[in-house]
């Protein structure tokens, strides 16, 4: 305008615009220039971003502002157009005119810039945050900020690698500090090292776990620069077995001092983004630029220690045992804890004086130990002791590492975003479903989103507003006209995996007991579940009081502690690919037992063909026999187990009790009456670390004995824990599966393997490293659990604790320590599979049968003794070896019985022909069933034809 106005030729035009538009001519002129430039840019980039509505809105806005200036300043600079526009306002009071024009300006601004309520809220929050930014010092701890999102620990960009992290004492929420054994401390870990270190820097840090740059760290944390923690990823390191180093390097820094000083963004190449143990398994979620939220310590404590678990009606001081109706007093101090067995409780109440301690009792009094005073002798020496208080001391919880609470830390709204992403994706596929906030469960390694199928709702007109609103039932739930099918959601599994950029997602439809389909994706801020935090949980404490064989399994997808009871399982099959976490699980089981049960309560038998996994337990008093590493000795061990089982059965039937619990109750009653005739019978847990090796060596015998034990051992308190790396049908046969109903599947390589273990797919989508599907015997569907972790160090410490106790225990009793030797009756010998049947206990009955019948044949023994073909054939061989029957003659199946007192001439040609036919049939059936079994099914076995002539 100035140029036009001053140039002689164009001054008229300039004058016109200035007169007509006043000062607005400048604004509009500049606006047109910008508009022209933007259009030019649009045409160069072949893009379009100028909205006509916005241009129009800006012009109108400019004119309204011009009008307002005319109303305020009069007709001096506003031009003719403004005068014309001001005409309608002349008769109005000035205030009304201003209000009208300003109102119009606001309306035009709202429409032009498309301002919504969300924008207003954003600004409101921003202002609020600025105002509320300076809380009085020291307030944070007293009054934790509650305004954060509930998705604790879900902000990848604010993981422990990219920001400060917090280690919080749990003692506040977890009861007495002494009881829990954790020192109160608040550890703020340092911020990440500089990210602008260049490629070399980045590489170094990936390989060598680059420490925080001192100067930078010092800048961030002026309080304790020298105490910065070296930020190392050691948690899930392959060769990492202990997290000692981690906590050692954690040093307290004042929480108030910590500030994020730069926006954090996602960079694939940046090692600092290696936030997750499963980095190679999961992918990334795009990150926004959020400001970190303050951490709620209470929330974190609750998430870490499971305080959210519903309180259980437990009285720490006194536990009333319903079954035995006796009151048990818990030990006064944990260090002086002396284990009280359920069957000892009654006597404890009665006997208050301090009697001499008593040695642990042997399982049986079959053979004395070779060196030193035998256990049988020791037992006999103490036989008259009026009580059974054990002198073993249980380890205190301090022997296990305290849970490292730094893992769960800052939180954000990523989870909410993912939920929205899932919902939008489903909608884009025209699948009506919703993901509610309350349906999101956050576990230690997994987040589960619950997708509720919705549909087209029934609509009615609202009487007040006249609008159409969905019809709701009495519970306030929307009633749908047509519903979305679950199968439609399930069909989108891969599409969801795509948008969530997750390498593995697992869908469960429906989640048992919930009205939604579960989508499980890896939690990028995953956390180790330590055995100690599980054992310290209230749920475990409650379970422990009920059963000595409780196992701290881990935490489920909602972060709740999951506990198993081996006594109820009653046997457990663990399978999974190599490195998936089987050995850790077995160690966890053993450690759970060692933490809560004395050798008087539970005894262990271990088979470790890998030779290295369970060796460390050699020498603990719980072992009935040293850890078996030779496959040849396993048959002998299982045989010992079977004879112990049979011995207990005989004992129980004599005493008229039905199971070990009944026996214990009876014993407690007798002890209360001063009768010490009944020996203590501990539960026995047989742990086999690699079944495949055994099944290769002696498939039939091992399978037969495992099944026999599995079928009958429950009542006698003998439990099997069998693990295998090879979930194929020749290892986990149909028979073994049928007899071991409780199963745990870790990650496997294929859906076929998964089906072999848990009879359904899903385990192939697990993440490994303790991520498992737990299928209890009484549940139809498996449950996903992150297994508790026990480092080798802890296991070693626990084993050493018990090994030392043997010495201490023996010193207390004034006897030689006996350790590492098998219990009498549990000696193992190299027992080749072929020799197994040599001492077949059916031999006597077989002899009776053949003498009674005056003839001997396999089919006869099969029918009369109700045994399988191979065992009957073996019995015939044994009878022949013992000189009871003769050899088969001329291909005939029936054999002569020597010295037969009652030979009524039953050995006729007709009988022999029948026998031959029956036997042939049995043989064929047997071969067929064997073949079918190796193909994965042993259902093909045809029943024995009972038409066979017996007489
Ligand atoms: N519950 C868990 N939590 C965290 N990490 C685990 C857990 N269980 C196992 N891991 C990790 O996985 C690694 C392998 O576990 P483990 O040795 O138990 O595997 P495995 O299945 O026994 O393998 P293999 O059959 O080859 O012996 C462990 O060293 C550990 O780092």
Automatic annotation (TrEMBL):
The chain crosses the membrane at residues 12-37, 49-67, 95-117. Residues 201-213, 344-353 have a biased composition (Polar residues). Residues 169-230, 332-389, 927-951 are annotated as: Disordered. InterPro entries: AAA+_ATPase (IPR003593), FtsK/SpoIIIE/SftA (IPR050206), FtsK_alpha (IPR041027), FtsK_dom (IPR002543), Ftsk_gamma (IPR018541), P-loop_NTPase (IPR027417), WH-like_DNA-bd_sf (IPR036388), WH_DNA-bd_sf (IPR036390). Pfam families: FtsK_alpha, FtsK_gamma, FtsK_SpoIIIE. SMART domains: AAA, Ftsk_gamma. It comes from the Bacteria. Keywords: ATP-binding, DNA-binding, Membrane, Nucleotide-binding, Transmembrane, Transmembrane helix. Residues 169-186 have a biased composition (Acidic residues). Residues 558-755 form the FtsK domain. ATP binds at residues 576-583. GO terms for molecular function: ATP binding; DNA binding. Belongs to the FtsK/SpoIIIE/SftA family. This is FtsK domain-containing protein. The lineage of its organism: Bacteria, Bacillati, Chloroflexota, Ktedonobacteria, Ktedonobacterales.
